Task: structure prediction
Amino acid sequence: MTSDPGLTCQDSDYATQIQETLDELQQMQEAPRVVTTPEELDTLERELRGRTDRLSSLLLGLHLQHSLDSEDLKVEQDLLVTQWPKPLKNDGRVQVWVRTAGGYGVPVWVTYYRRKGQRRKGKRYAGLYAGLVLLGIYDRCTPALAAEISLLAAMLGSLEEARDVLGQRGVVLDIKTLRLIAYRYGARARVAQQIESTELDDTVSGRRVVISTDGGRIRLRETKRGPKTQKGRRRYTGAWREPKVLIIYVVNAEGKREASFAPLIDATLKGPEAVFALLRTYLHRLQITHADQVLFIADGAPWIWKRVPLLVQALGLGGLHTTFVQKLSRRVRR
Result:
């Protein structure tokens, strides 16, 4: 993970190792080295760069740990945990190594939150390092390093070339890790681009807002693995899937939809958590807490109503006039 396996500082050791590195650089300043060949100059330059990269990584680790211990970030962590789709439990502080753009890994202590519920043997519960997420640290990489990895993976001819270029400047990664970081960084960038491109010019301030979600039915053509047909065509299955659809619109005092507000409609095939994450994003951007009344309408599907209270809590709608309406489905009516 690092170009220097000896970088194993703890919280209290950052200041010591920073001073040691500064002393080494000062010695090199006070006693300039005479180089007479290109090879000697290359060695000197690499040595200087290695020490400065080590110093920058140590300083970053010191600032990172100070930020994770600050009260301001702890408040933001608590807010993020309460807004998470699944209930989380504080599992204590653990040490996590973070890769830096300088090529070194620095250890930091951060609170780990895991899914609530009894641990089952052989089953892993997804958890969250809330502090690292708030600082944009995913896959144990700083944002600068993740951006550089993704840029090289996109620019160069192969992941092997990207690995070699990173290795020359001290960032040692295997192909599998490099691919994972680049692909996940690209996925986050696409989501951020989609959210930013969605313009929400309308306001819900002082208006009656209706929120609804439901499951549908769609048939997808999915390619099957295995040999092709005699005509050389790919075999496929027509699997039925249930898309989760959401809609947000505004009504007047008589309950009729206001044409002046363009309804927000979106859908996903990724399940209940994904559609409620979309709802949180849209309602937060609409500043739903400024609405006069909020009305949740849905059928009796359990996957909806067990998540609505969490959504209300996450958005801070407790003080608003919030109404819940459960419609009878056609199947129930018959």
User: Anything to note?
Assistant: Confidence is low (pLDDT under 50) at residues 1-9, 330-334. The radius of gyration is 27 Å. The first strand starts at residue 88 and ends at 99. Residues 208-219+236-333 form a domain with the Nucleotidyltransferase; domain 5 fold (CATH 3.30.420).
